Amino acid sequence: MKINKSILIISFFSVLSLFSQKIKSPDKNTFLTFSLTEEGVPSYSVMYKNQEAIKFSKLGFELKNDNQNLMDGFSILNSVNTSFNETWNPVWGEESEIQNQYNELLVNLEQNESHRKMNIRFRVFNNAVGFRYEFPVQDNLGHFVIKDEKTQFAMTGDHTAFWIPGDYDTQEYDYIESRLSEIRGLMASSITDNLAQTSFSSTGVQTSLMLKTDNGLYINLHEAALIDYSVMHLNLDDKNMIFEAWLTPDAKGDRPYMITPANTPWRTIIVSDDARDVLASRITYNLNEPSNIEDTSWIKPVKYVGVWWEMIAGKSSWSYTDDFKAVKLGFTDYNNASPNGKHGATTEHVKEYVDFAAKHGFDAVLVEGWNVGWEDWFGHSKDYVFDFVTPYPDFNVEEVHNYAKSKGIKMIMHHETSGSVRNYERHIDKAYQFMKDNGYDAVKSGYVGNILPRGENHYSQWMVNHYQYALEKAADYQIMLNAHEAVRPTGIARTYPNLIGNESARGTEYQAFGGSNANHVTILPFTRLIGGPMDYTPGIFEMDLSKVNPQNNSHVNSTLANQLALYVTMYSPLQMAADLPENYNRFLDAFQFIKDVGIDWEKSIYLEAEPGSYITIARKEKGTNNWFVGNVNGKSNRNSKVSLDFLDKDKVYIATIYADAKNANYKTNPQAYIIKKYKVTNKSKLSQLSVKGGGYAISIIESNKREANKYSEL
Amino acid sequence: MKINKSILIISFFSVLSLFSQKIKSPDKNTFLTFSLTEEGVPSYSVMYKNQEAIKFSKLGFELKNDNQNLMDGFSILNSVNTSFNETWNPVWGEESEIQNQYNELLVNLEQNESHRKMNIRFRVFNNAVGFRYEFPVQDNLGHFVIKDEKTQFAMTGDHTAFWIPGDYDTQEYDYIESRLSEIRGLMASSITDNLAQTSFSSTGVQTSLMLKTDNGLYINLHEAALIDYSVMHLNLDDKNMIFEAWLTPDAKGDRPYMITPANTPWRTIIVSDDARDVLASRITYNLNEPSNIEDTSWIKPVKYVGVWWEMIAGKSSWSYTDDFKAVKLGFTDYNNASPNGKHGATTEHVKEYVDFAAKHGFDAVLVEGWNVGWEDWFGHSKDYVFDFVTPYPDFNVEEVHNYAKSKGIKMIMHHETSGSVRNYERHIDKAYQFMKDNGYDAVKSGYVGNILPRGENHYSQWMVNHYQYALEKAADYQIMLNAHEAVRPTGIARTYPNLIGNESARGTEYQAFGGSNANHVTILPFTRLIGGPMDYTPGIFEMDLSKVNPQNNSHVNSTLANQLALYVTMYSPLQMAADLPENYNRFLDAFQFIKDVGIDWEKSIYLEAEPGSYITIARKEKGTNNWFVGNVNGKSNRNSKVSLDFLDKDKVYIATIYADAKNANYKTNPQAYIIKKYKVTNKSKLSQLSVKGGGYAISIIESNKREANKYSEL
């Protein structure tokens, strides 16, 4: 890893009268002002290109069972300015080199009466600001419990927000686009059913939160490096348009338990007048620590298929039998149970997926429902719900492993915990060892339903610590982890790059549960993906679910071309082709894009972007000269106009464009696509129609003139 | 293990009109009547020698989120009568053979509308009754949550009770002797401070509960085989003198989560007109399953000393340093910390204990405070509080191990969890493996303070499952377990005989925290010990704690002779000589009894017993012809009169009597003891004074006439 560090320390020990200090981004466009009020309240504000982005906002904490809150009465002991610039190389990502450049201000505060010390570290990047609280070892603060974090993000007006309801248990909501002042009125209707959900306020929303001002500023609020702390939501004071941090409480209503030395996660603000800068920002990763894993050679991006969509659609089942009202592992006799005839994860059926994967050049096959316990896996607050090592009678682990190995295919393990995390932790060593013994090196874990220990929520400190525990354990076993229904990512994949995926948002499965908004995928890169990649499981070709399962009336709100584009626009080192093999076999020409598309990138160019409306991205595959372009389109038919000037100057390429047909319609005619081939160079310009809920995908493969000249120029 | 089984099945399929059935004990003295009321409410009553012991008492459950409670509307499907008689051999115990003989009635019930099945299994032993609920696999009951167990124990009058306040977190209370009608008025004052405590009702008391009727009936209420359920307390309706089960709730207020097939623990009633029968009853073990451990050769009774009392008394400390306001394991640098000069568990000091143990024939040395983390171990709801493998800089695990091994002494590990059980479970494999690697085969675990996961209590189903998990894990590693502050035992040591001890009551430590009632030890065998042995840690010779630590004004409310007697009266396969070596060195003649006394028994004879007043027990050591007698005396000076007719007919013995001197006084003159030697035979009779809070101990060693004739006859 190449690191260019240049640290300039400008330290000055100030007198107590220091009340305000400015810090600018390297490009001078973004600047943050820290100030201490007369009452000793720390605060900050953010400007971008002479526009106010964040107004005067207070910082601090209310503590539990403590007479002295950490909110006011502070003096400045000293402050330290530094600059930092390095380039680091992620194990996988949207580019092979990430620049981490910022100017830093560390303000060391002490409370006048209590003599408690609290430091605030600000980092100002181009287009972004991060800050965190730090509590050093000190005589007057050891253990403390946060009652409320009082960090404010004061808005300058009644912005447009792309938000989902604040919730301690789920992020699986469709995004609402509304004015801040409309959140309260829209809250009730925005809280759609989920298997576990706990909302807390009629103006509470989740991060990352995407905002747009009437002046055309794009603002994104999130957090980075959420370690040993609880998830931050934002609660809006909609009279004054001030967001305040709202931490997820524990079973007793308490917020994080802290021990000095301690840091909070970073609170992050991305700001620009160009929405593409939000997508290009790497602040979340940059505010995380470098990799804790020394040898990362075993971490590899994965393109996979799996025994999954057929269960999601209701065609087949995770469970093996309908005999049991309840399952008691160790007691329940599966060997004498009658199969229900719908079990997906049978040896034979999995082999078909292995064959399909091998034939089409995929890396791996995921199998869900392979292990005993699925008959009553959900809704019973069941403690010992799975053991993670015992297969159903019709799934032969060894036979499948050997077969897959013979075809060069890896198997992806599935660990559904049902939220019963004590049980998972008790079995995790054996479960991971079982994986290694059987050739699995990646696991999809799930946290469906209410958490056990009862009273805890998915996003509390307790659970954040659990996900981290499982992640670090997986690293010990050299296992790649893709956790679903876990806490949304905050860039921790920089430190543990074996975290190759997360769900933590409304994924493709909801297209089989009633459908998602047609512009959902034009918002996710501005929100959920700010923290890290999502296992969105794209690639659905059959939008009419009743063709998969006659009992399912759901419709996938997307065109087929849009589904292809997602492999580019929804960056992930883990990409599934989620539909059934038989549906791909009906559209093998379109399927070719999924087979071709890269999953690890040398660089990414953000060509067009407007949250809720459209995103167009070009990415160059790592290790080849191939480029792939994706466009997703949200609200109405639109012509995307992009220049291919990112291509190498003196080369010719063949571009294969997979686009919506003119008569395509995400509701009524989603499978109307066209495939066109052109000769392109860095002079080429594209104007391409995408329908509402549609999009296009392009593969651009380096060629020679003779070959390229077979095709007309774009 | 020798088992004589004789099972006689008398099964009759009854019509729905069966409303009442009687079942008698093998000796016909005890009988239980089961009946179904007209409303279909199951109920029972118990008679003993034509006296009513338990009046008409209802049975059933209120369920959570379920329209159909399991309380009424039942019909009898059928009932099955069986008889059972076996003799089994415990790995350790008060005798080498235990008879398990009972008549059983299994009533199979079905609820009329819901068609739910609930069976009740009654077992009637001589002097005891046990029953439990059983929920078979069925179509209409799979998962269910108990809101309240409605099991009643209806008293026949305003009995005298020996009770401690109902509490979800502790049993460390002094017993109150009062009428049932007085409980409410005495509750507030009986709830003395504890580091974790949660009382729930002004008439709630704990089991095992000892009662005495005005007619001289002794009744004991407890439970057996508490597995995957929460602890039963008893709540008194003090108008009608009816106790009802009160289960410990979980963090959300729910009672046990059940999955069919499921059994509740057994509810037990011991009844007799002779208090000695209560002590002799083995119903608790008999209602547990036989050993799950096949090879029990590694489970051995242990007599031990330890680095413990000096910390309890405040003379030395568990912690190594006073430098830290808070400890963060992995961050905190102990190597550069300044020692506080009071740390008990130093290599050198432990070696002194090893020397003392070796010199006086002990088996083992316990060391507390050996591992990092004690500086802030309590009161902070700290998650990662200990790692159980990292010693303090001044404690060399390997050096101590080698030294102890060279002297033939085993080391006893100490694992304080601080109630942070997720942390303990995460480390338990490594911790147990660390023990085995370093030659430890027994562990004392502790659960001081409030439980993590927060909101759970010591006695909830969640925690009961944790203790069981730790016990079974210990068995996997061939480790003997002695859990403090854990759930009180319910005979599970039959199934897992590596559970060689528990605290779960007010132990000797309270004598250094202000003192316990002088008659405390005359009650514990009737209450706490009904479920299994207690690591009471007797043997305190210096009653004035200020002589150990000038800052400690506590007084041990006991005579020295009483302390010796405890090694006989407080049965345990794990016996500590808890005082400091220097205190034993001052009274080596009395200490001789502790050195001599057996810790595993061929048989036990209960010579005298009255709860709260006195207990006198004779026990024959396993593998020798030695007998040991102990008497503890509670309320006032008393002459104990016992016959030694339990001795072998044709043998002569030398009895060494360690007794209170006439002027002994547990408050003012506790160290006044006399030691006398006599020749004794099975014709000998003893009349021996014990003062209040006093007692006597006798070793009776087989001799020959020549040797015995040196002493006068008793």
From TrEMBL, chains A, B:
This is Glycosyl-hydrolase 97 C-terminal, oligomerisation. Residues 23-290 form the Glycosyl-hydrolase 97 N-terminal domain. Monomer. GO terms for molecular function: carbohydrate binding; hydrolase activity. Residues 600-700 form the Glycosyl-hydrolase 97 C-terminal oligomerisation domain. The keyword Methyltransferase does not apply. Residues 308-505 form the Glycosyl-hydrolase 97 catalytic domain. Its cofactor is Ca(2+). InterPro entries: Aldolase_TIM, GH, GH-type_carb-bd, GH97_C, GH97_catalytic, GH97_N, Glycosyl_hydrolase_97. PANTHER family: GLUCAN 1,4-ALPHA-GLUCOSIDASE SUSB, GLUCAN 1,4-ALPHA-GLUCOSIDASE SUSB-RELATED. Keywords: Calcium, Hydrolase.
